[in-house]
Fold these 4 entries.
Entry 1:
Amino acid sequence: MDLAFPQIAAAIAIFCFVSGCATTTPPEGFYQGETPYTMETDTMKRLEKIPELGQPQITIAVYNFPDRTGQRKPNVKFSQLSTAVTQGPETWVINGLKAVGGNEPWFIVVERQGLDAIIKERQLIRSTRELYDGESDVKNQLKPLKFAGLIVEGGIVGYDTNITSGGAGARYFGIGVSEQYRTDQVTVSIRLVAVQTGEILLTTSATKTIASYSSGGDVFRFLDMSTKALEIETGVATNEPVNYAIRTTIEHAIHNLIYEGIDKGLWAFKIEE
């Protein structure tokens, strides 16, 4: 037997009510994805606006900046092998150091992640020149690699989930609405080490909160007591990207490191004459 008109009207009204509780329509171009773009953060802009260095550029090296949290992506259904945070944070450390001072960069960052590849390529150049060009004194044909006086070390030392969580909901005659929120927290630690002495000159850390929010509604109602029932669900969730949070936290830690170095006399701003 077909549904009566009042029942159909009630179903439409319920659907409109629930769908109004959460935006379910994807933004324009959602299914095609965004065009790749370069993201510039507010913390990166702060690094670029740091005043000019009052001494020659500082050569600095970044080896590893590991994930020391051991955290895995949360999943209640099965074991998750993917890590909760990026495994390449040294990229953001290098970018942050290169950005300090903007057009008048403070640091010369030397390559250490791919050092083995550089050494192999230099060996290949030497052997090729010696074999085919007859150059016996090949040591003078390549400039020596730059060495760093300072090393940046540290890592992602904390990733805590469900620091704050909560929500609210209500149900009346089979119609329910709810909202939930959760905050996670990531902590980064950076230290500056002198190569000649091994002394830790500076150390700092930074913490950022990662926010997640979801809202939704649902309807479950019998339209016919024998067999027919109406069930509708709708919802939307917003999650701050973890990679973005880690990047901005690292950039903020570098900003702190610069000004701690100013306070301790390791470097100084250029004095305008």
Entry 2:
Amino acid sequence: MADLQRIAVVIDADNTQLSKIDDVLREISTHGRIVVKRAYGNWRKEELKNWEPEIKRLAIKAVQQFDYVAGKNATDIALVIDTIDLLHKNLYDAFVIVSSDSDYTPLAIRLHESGVYVIGVGEKKTPLSFKNSCDEFLLLENISINTEMSVTEQPPVPSSPAPQETMGSNEKPESNNIVTDAVPEENMGVDDIDEIHKLLKSAYVTYQNNDGFANVAPVGSFIKRTKPDFDCRTYGYSKLPQFLEAFPQKYEVKRYPGKGTVTIVAYKCIDKE
């Protein structure tokens, strides 16, 4: 995803875990500058009383929305109206909707049709309709994993002699960055992992070069466009190259130097099935 200059983050406090908000903002900040941070809820509710200290610490604007009818909150309507108002200012190139509620699907579609980048953030249980209406959907479970990676990632393992396909003496090997609790293939959802392999094969056909290898960068973007909630961290790996290397029977991975200190990673499908 391209760097974003002005990001607006709107949070549905009724459908978000307070303990994850700090991690969410840190994750979104890696994509660009957050200029709007708003959280919506009826702050008089007992279940939201613990939000106040965190909202103050993170400098989030709290928007009060009373429940006009007992048993039915109006938070989602207030969030939608404010978001559309922000959209009409034409100041933001991305909106982040933090919620696991599928009621925000029409809002995400409307934002997408306006040409802004839409990121959804929610739990795994979030309905597919909301996930697929976003350009990118981040799972809260993966975001929390991300904060632990500095501890769980293994240091680079000294490699054996350079493989025969090394492209040049200036190649800068990339750290393995394999998370120690990587999910074994047999424990992954069969349908889900099969879908990822099919997408990787489809992308390989589209993006392979004259050497028979496909650059991982455009492939990753292609998969995100096709499956917005795709995240290698779901399977225990921090990056797509490490995911590919976990399946040596299916993919051959190579690295070669690009411009400056950049290392280009490419892969070839070797599974004939």
Entry 3:
Amino acid sequence: MPELPEVETVRKQLLNHLQHKTIKSINIIHNNVFENQDTNKVKLNIQNQTINDIKRRGKWLIFELDNYDLLSHLRMEGKYLYRKPNEKIEKHELVIFNIDDTFELRYKDTRKFGKMYLINKEDLYKNSPLTKLGLEPWDDNLTINYLKDKYKNKKLPIKTVLLDQSIITGIGNIYADEILFLSKINPHKKCSDLNDKELKLIIENTKKVLDKAIKEGGTTIRSYTSEEGVSGRFQNNLLVHKRENEKCLVCNNIIIRDKIGGRSTYYCNKCQK
């Protein structure tokens, strides 16, 4: 699944191609992408809207149009592709945007899990999925006290809670493993048992890992590649994720894979206490 660094990579690529371009029309092939929305109304409202900017909140892309904001979540395998007009529509291309009558932006999703929402601008942070998101990793309000307040009554493993988008948004399975390894925290440890030093390390290493991943264009694992098949390079820097039965790069202990909260979790039980 694309996590924050992968979505940020896609955002930059899309912005480079689409800023100040106009959506002439939209062909919605799979209506469920626009969940609980009148697709005829979406087609009418998005027509002739200019893409003024593309931003990101957590794992959500925000296309800032003239009168609306278009939210897009890639979920497991969603990606955007550029195609010539009248080029054959391939399987799993679910939404097609006609851009300035010169090319098409196609949303492709083999699993059909991705979602889009056309939102009135005044409702973006009042009545949209963004209202449920927590702090961005670089938000100045992400402090030890903030995490202490959020974690104090949670008996769940820290690995599970790091994936909770309502606390820190954008962290997924890959980067949660890497953050906990650098912080020397066992992923099974209960949130409520974390001390101030450990919370400080989580904040610092969240920024460190995600900054580096963005610089490397994200991580390419299994089905994820960014727009037009561009692959990230951060997978070459992974210290524990997907390294089951390999030697720890710090202590030579064998990396373990466990299931925590239904998610595969990789860690070194010698380095991470």
Entry 4:
Amino acid sequence: MKKRIIAVNSNCYHGYSIEEAIAGIRRAGFHYIELTATKGWTEHVFPDMPFERLLAIQDELEAAQLRPFAMSGHCNLMDPERIPDFVKNIRLAAFFGCDYIVSSIGEAHLKDNAVADNRTVAESIRALVPHLERYGLTLVLETHGHDHGTGAVLSDIVRLVGSERVKINYDTANVVLYGGVDPVADLRACVSDVAYLHLKDKAGAADVWDFPALGKGWVDFPGVFGVLEEAGNASPFSIEIEFTQAGPKNLAEIDQAVQDSADYLRAHGLSLIHI
């Protein structure tokens, strides 16, 4: 299996501090982290934080030898009023030295104040490309929401944008919850446009919020890995565990789920080494 970056999304620690996330992720043996800057949900880092606070987080990451290679900065990219917020997120991701910035097309956890067709969305995203180029970032659009919940839909938008700076973040459980599709088949249809993956498991009924540690649900990860291998796609993995709507019982449950996910990947021949 190809070497690839394997990270943990700090959103796994929703409701807990970034320091707690850093400690748990590093303890499980990871060297990479996806920071979360999602308005109204998980704001582990955020553009309006005091500069001293951002520097302190940067120091914590360095001390833990965790590289912040990506940042979730979800904004409604269909809403002209939210585009300046997303540009701030791009600059924040650059501050932390990230290579990727993640966003859904619509809001991740807020109500959408605007909607648009794929061509209009593509025009809005294309206007972000100069900012992405300036800061050396790739925007990876997440399979998220009922209108944009499959890789096939996002492939259409990515191709309309027509920039190597804009690709897909394929979330292996969101495509089930929102898109109602089989992740393996859907990934195969869009794999050439995928540059990033949220490895997220799915338990319970397809339409129920239930995202356990890797290997504790029913997503066919060996099938996912096989599609990527066949395509020669070595995109980074970022583990995301969101539990049920009740949330985790405590911090120890999150730490254990992160450790269980690390063990699952190692058992399937993947390495967490620093690349």
